[in-house]
Amino acid sequence: MKRIWILFLVTLLVQVKLSAQNPGEDDWGAWYMYFGTNKVAEKFSIHTEAQFRFYETTSNFNQLLLRTGLNYHINPNAIATMGYGFIKTDNTFGEPFAARDSREHRIFEQFILKNKVWEFLFEHRYRLEQRFLNFGNSTDTQHRARYRIQVTLPLTDTFFLNFYDELFINLQDDLFGQNRLYGALGVHITENSSVQFGYLRNQFTNSVFDRLQIGFFYNPDLRGIFKKNKGAAASDKN
């Protein structure tokens, strides 16, 4: 009987430990996202972005990502960007009181090339990132390269399909970082806004995560506002 109780306790402890290490890989999580590209001049626009990521579809917070950048439009098919991002990450799953949050300040440089083949719209995105991470009791600086190929297929004037695959390459330690495979149905709401409902397969070296995604895209042209403000300022001076 004593041996049975010992075996029971050992089994229980192992199960608790395994549960504590569960990264949420077996759960469907969700990312809720906003993206904006706002023209402020003929050659310049501002990128804005906010993402709320969860281990589960509506609960168990995983990550907050805020990102902005200045875009330089070389031509309609080539865009260069420099920007900044702030990322707050909860690395635990099912442990709401565990103090394991990390914070990251990120600088990035990016270049986008676009082309069209028949009805398919291709976008190639090349990005370099300098990551300054704070884990609370330690800090680290990391560098990373990313390449994303995206394909958009218009179905009608309202509906479209969007697919991409993005590879993350670490510039230190292990070369492979992660790979993201994405597919979505998109809906044009207005001339400058759309929404996408999609699925993301996020693969790391030792784990794979399934994520539902809802993305809202809003790209108003702000040049008229800037011209009005400039005209109002000139009127005040007169």
Distance between the termini: 96 Å
| Lateral arrangement of strands in the main beta sheet | 1-2-3-4-5-6-7-8-9-10-11
The main sheet comes to:
11 strands, mixed, barrel
Tally of separate helices: 2
Structural class: mainly beta
CATH class: Mainly Beta
Q: From the alpha carbons, calculate the radius of gyration and give it in angstroms.
A: 22 Å
How many E-type strands? Answer: 11
Q: Could you give me the name of the CATH homologous superfamily?
A: monomeric porin ompg
Q: Helical residue percent?
A: 10-25%
The chain-level mean pLDDT equals 86
The SSE string, one letter per element, is: HEEEEEEEEEEEH
The name CATH uses for the topology is: Porin
CATH architecture level-2 label: Beta Barrel
Strand residues, percent: over 45%
Rough shape? globular
Total separate domains: 1
Given as residue ranges, the uncertain stretches (5+ residues, pLDDT < 50) are 1-21
Structure description:
With 238 residues, this protein is mainly β. The protein has a single domain, classed as Beta Barrel (Porin). 15% of the residues lie in helices and 62% in strands. It has helices at 2-21, 223-237; strands at residues 29-39, 44-54, 61-75, 78-90, 101-117, 120-134, 139-154, 159-170, 176-190, 193-203, 208-218. Strands 1-2-3-4-5-6-7-8-9-10-11 form an 11-stranded mixed beta barrel. The longest helix has 20 residues, at 2-21. The chain is globular and about 50 Å long. Mean pLDDT is 86; it is low at 1-21. Residues 1-20 form the signal peptide. It holds the Pfam family DUF2490. This is DUF2490 domain-containing protein. It comes from Flagellimonas nanhaiensis.
